[in-house]
Amino acid sequence: MFKRKAKEKKIKTPRFQTFRDAYKVTKQVKPWITIALIAIFALSWGIGIGIGVSVGHPVYFGFIFFPLALLLTLFFFTRQAGTAAYASIEGQIGAGASVLMAIRKGWTTTPAVAAARNQDMVHRSVGRAGIVLTGEGTNAVRQMIADERKKAERFAPGVPITEVLVGNEDGRVPIKKLQKHLRRLPKKLTAHQMREVRARLKAVGG
Fold this sequence. Notes:
Elements: H1 15-29, H2 33-55, H3 58-89, H4 95-101, E1 107-115, E2 121-127, E3 130-136, H5 141-155, E4 161-165, H6 178-183, H7 191-203
Helix pairs in contact: 1-3, 2-3
């Protein structure tokens, strides 16, 4: 009799550890984050207690506003942690690929389908909006994108192709807005067509 292989248990990162790591990254980019979090919590809770005092129920309102103050503080922290994460990788080699591959749903990204010695590179993403070619580096990356566009048109004719340049200069998309930029692209392919394009590009080595 064949024995079934025991399923490997997925190792989950504890939430506290995730929060701690996010705090460390945010603290490096924004040293003032600790004071800001304490101030927001204290101010929010203080407002609740103040309202309670004015109506004669400080303990009750303090109890009600405590979780609300925590929630408001956590919301502020998550927003700051998000911007800090982008700031920590901005300018690094392959930062655009990291951001693109972090899109959880609807997109598949192949990093560095083209790369140059000066570290210019092009990433290719496929989603309902079609094919997106994202370039990182100097202006010379435009030619690399043009070459990849020709390849994509050859292997996936008729599929919409969008070109994106990462950066803070005019005509480029900042790294922190890259995911949002792709998500806002109009959907032009059905789910079946999208899978077909992915399979076709994968078959030719991409």
